[in-house]
Amino acid sequence: MAKIQLLDPRLANQIAAGEVVERPASVVKELVENSLDSGANRIDLEVEDGGVKLIRVRDNGSGIDKEDLPLALSRHATSKIRALPDLEAVASLGFRGEALASISSVSRLSLNSAVAEAESGWSARSEGRDMSAVLEPIAHPQGTTVEVRDLFFNTPARRKFLRTEKTEFSHLEEVVKRQALGRFDVGFSLCHNGRAIHSLKPATNQLEQERRLASVCGPAFMENALFIDRTAANLRLWGWVALPSFSRSQADLQHFFVNSRYIRDRLVAHAVRQAYQDVLYHGRHPAFVLYLEVDPANVDVNVHPTKHEVRFRDGRTVHDFIFRTLHQALADVRPSDQTNTAN
Ligand code: ADP
Ligand code: MG
């Protein structure tokens, strides 16, 4: 008798979910990225019990056609790339076609959506081991609402790793804040157990952006931050860096975006650390919210399933550009500007 068998689709998806769905915060990251990719300029989130009981993400983006709904829930199904060359200059946040399939295999997920001028909206759930989708007509404005209930209800081993409601919510909130910093042009709201936690209107000019920054990173950061904006060759670096006097005991206020995608990168971290080296005491960490714009063809985002890591085609140039820009900006600060203290 043959010993090798194909896994049923739900199990295969649950195994894949291990890579991207660690906790409620990872679900939120994937759902909000989908909303952003759909062109939404308004994203509303409601969560219960730190996201374990419920995560609901509603957007006003393109919506999904009825015919596409079952596919949206299937693994390796995406509308964002078709061929290898697309992957080499990918501009969307998603492209792996795995998030919804993974999340729906470890939760009770419903996908509700309507496209412009459709007679009705449609709701899809995937059920059973073969993950086949069940469709029902519903009333829905243009856009998409994804509801994820009872995360890890069928994978007790994963569920055991969840922390307290407070801890899970704080991870989730961190993800939303980061996404709100990544896209000033999009309005965000976040409710937890019926309580409004954040309500951020789209920010279209620097003043409004700084207001959002103060609300997300705290007014003290904003009061002690320098705005920078420098372009060289085909690189642009802009954003806010805290004065050395506003250093932190932890690296907890560091947000770096490459083409609106939040990343953690050793090369970038090194360039920033070097720029602050002469002006920060040992053991203190700089605070910054920075945006690097590069030609998508010069950066590979397909390094890791969560896409938090990237690879630059010309890492040396990127490193030196970041270092020089920040070093110069910090050198230009008059000593009298450096009198405040922070924690
Ligand atoms: P990926 O984002 O990598 O393509 P996902 O599993 O996250 O994979 O989503 C699958 C597909 O479902 C997407 O390619 C997109 O076409 C569609 N989709 C998911 N969420 C939304 C949304 N909020 N609005 C419009 N389309 C969506
Ligand atoms: Mg996605």
From TrEMBL:
GO MF, any single term: ATP hydrolysis activity
Gene Ontology CC entries for this record: mismatch repair complex
Keyword Transport: no
GO biological process: mismatch repair
Keyword DNA repair annotated: yes
Compositional bias of kind Polar residues: 336-343
Domain DNA mismatch repair protein S5: from-to ranges: 213-331
Keyword terms: DNA damage, DNA repair, Endonuclease, Hydrolase, Nuclease
Annotated transmembrane regions: none
Function: This protein is involved in the repair of mismatches in DNA. It is required for dam-dependent methyl-directed DNA mismatch repair. May act as a 'molecular matchmaker', a protein that promotes the formation of a stable complex between two or more DNA-binding proteins in an ATP-dependent manner without itself being part of a final effector complex.
Protein family per UniProt: Belongs to the DNA mismatch repair MutL/HexB family.
Name this protein carries in UniProt: DNA mismatch repair protein MutL
UniProt source species: Spongiibacter pelagi
Gene from which the chain derives: mutL
Residues of the full protein shown: 1 to 343 of 618
